[in-house]
Amino acid sequence: MSTPHIHAPEGAFAESILLPGDPLRARFIAETFLEDPVQVNSVRNMFGYTGTYRGTPVSTMGTGMGVPSAAIYVTELIRSYGVRRLVRVGTCGGISTDVKMREAILAVGASTDSLTNRTRYNGWDYAATANFELLRAAAEAAAGLGIKTHVGNLHTSDLFYNSYQNALDVWQRMGILAVEMETAGLYAIAAEERAQALSIVTVSDHLVTGEETSSDERERTFGNMVRIALEAIHSLSG
Ligand code: HPA
After folding, report:
1. Of the listed 98, 158, 205, 216, which one is catalytic?
2. Which residues are 196's β-sheet partners?
3. What is the DSSP string of 76-113?
4. Residue 45 carries which DSSP code?
5. What is the rounded distance in angstroms from the CA atom of residue 47 to the CA atom of residue 35?
6. Number of C-alpha atoms within 13 angstroms, CB side, residue 39?
7. What does the alpha-carbon distance between residue 119 and residue 89 come to, in Å, rounded to a whole number?
8. Any idea of the CA torsion for 43, 49, 50, 52, to the nearest 10 degrees?
9. Of the candidates 17, 59, 5, 20, the residue with the CA atom closest to the CA atom of residue 182
10. Which atom of ligand 1 is found nearest the CA of 180?
11. Summary count for the chain: helices (H), strands (E)
């Protein structure tokens, strides 16, 4: 079977999936953390894999960057491939000075400048929130692994290179922890499709301090998010 953007047999994806933006990160997750990974998608080089983690079937696939790209893959995975539990594992730019470089954030909700949720929600403001069961499982998994996390609100932006006036002031005033580009869209789609979704993001750069991580460092800290996501999925699948 196939959808416009995924060519994989029926049943190729597990019920639970890890979604990095970068398809090469999906490959890294599959090769590093999953047992017996099989590549199940390569359309547009958006690599997808299915394997197991401690006996639990788990898939991983890239989403590309931004809500429109992620929305295509997430919608097709849920509607056509039976995916029910989706965990984004990505990076973000720190906004709050409480969050430090390389720390992980569990996103309770995501505010946004993207109009896709308004389009989806009749022009009104949709409260894009994580699935509580998955969020709680991730918080417990992180505690069990001894990994510090922050729990709070993200801002999902359509523009990486923006010329917004006062954006940082507004975000800080409203208690936004960090900015990234997919979560608000993921949460709204999951709600509409009655699936479970959570974003876990690691601070890869900080908009206040101007700090940045090297790609080497991103690879190393990336593992913490993946472990949290996999343990959370495993605990809910038991
Ligand atoms: N802005 C938006 N998305 C991001 C950033 C950022 O600074 N860093 C990582 N993802």
Report:
1. 205
2. 85
3. HHHHHH---EEEEEEEEEE-STTSPTT-EEEEEEEEES
4. G
5. 17
6. 13
7. 25
8. -170
9. 20
10. 3
11. 7, 9
- In a mutational test of the pocket of ligand 1, which residue from 69, 92, 208 has the highest number of ligand atoms less than 8 Å from its CB? 92
Atom of ligand 1 nearest to the CA of 181: 3
- What does the pLDDT read at residue 219? 75
DSSP-derived 3-state class of residue 13: coil
The verdict on pTM exceeding 0.85 is yes
205 in active site: yes
Tens-binned pLDDT, residue by residue, of the chain (238 aa): 899 999 999 999 999 999 999 999 999 999 999 999 999 999 999 999 999 999 999 999 999 999 999 999 999 999 999 999 999 999 999 999 999 999 999 999 999 999 999 999 999 999 999 999 999 999 999 999 999 999 999 999 999 999 888 999 999 999 999 999 999 999 999 999 999 999 999 999 999 999 998 878 877 788 999 999 999 999 999 6
With tokens 């639970």, the residue in question is: 16
Which residues have any ligand 1 atom within 6 Å of their CB?
91-93, 157, 160, 179-181, 204-205
Ligand 1 midpoint to CA 181 (Å): 7
What's the CA gap between 188 and 193, in Å, rounded? 9
